[in-house]
Amino acid sequence: MVGENTQSKFDLELEKIGITLNERQKQQFDKYYEMLVEWNKVMNLTGITEYDEVNLKHFTDSLTIARTQEMQKVQSVIDIGTGAGFPGIPLKIAFPHLKVVLLDSLNKRIKFLEAVIEELGLENISTIHGRAEDFAKKKEYREQFDLCVSRAVANLSTLSEYCLPFVAVNGSFVSYKSGDSEEEIHQAKHAISLLGGKVKNVDKFQLPGTDMGRALVEIKKTKQTPGKYPRKAGLPAKEPLK
Question: pLDDT by residue (tens digit) across 2-30?
Fold first, then answer.
């Protein structure tokens, strides 16, 4: 059983970013943690399994977006390359009003995510199994979301080509990056512009209670993404837009 002190440490870090959880939400995070550790024994979901560390480096980190986004005004979110559900599931737990779609290319991760959604009793959240390049061409997903998020490890030019086609004009794509990403952001600016976006804000900070430098790169969608993007599956990673 999780001790009170441990729990309040998580509460404290979330308070710093303006988030207060009720008892149900705390229980959902604890259950999510238990499932993550359990399933991690048979498949690779995370290298971090210690309770406090998961709370900080996965859950709190996922929710740091509340530093710059008014999440109560956001209605729909898609999480590209969600992996074990970060940041999409923590966002759904903390902001239950959100309509969330989780996309991942690995089917066994999708099975894990669906088990979490069911166990936590989350509603208005769905998973899609496949590649961003394919789903971004489908009209039920293309330019349908207020916010696209990704904690996936990829070059920002590549990620922008995956993500911006999902974002409605005037919506945002927020990429979770490490603290030293200036060069990468600079190099991606032309690609972002081609895709209909503009770097609006780079929020740099230290993840509370760690020595991890983080950067949230907010890209505003200013116009529609040209129909030829994203290019066919595999190309955005192999040949990032210059």
Answer: 444 555 789 999 998 999 999 999 999 99
* Cis omega (within 30 of 0) for bond into 230: yes
142 is in an annotated binding site: no
CB 101 within 8 A of CB 117: no
pLDDT category, 152, cuts 50, 70, 90? confident
* First-residue to last-residue Cα distance in the chain: 51
Cβ neighbours, 10 Å, residue 153: 11
**Is the N-terminal amide bond of 90 cis, ω within 30° of 0?**
no
Residue given tokens 């061409």 in the structure block = 137
Rounded (to 5) percent helix, strand, coil in the chain: 45, 20, 35
Determine whether the annotation assigns residue 86 to a binding site.
Answer: yes
CATH code that applies to domain 72-238: 3.40.50.150
Q: Was 151 annotated as part of a binding site?
A: yes
Q: Which amino acid type is present at position 236?
A: P
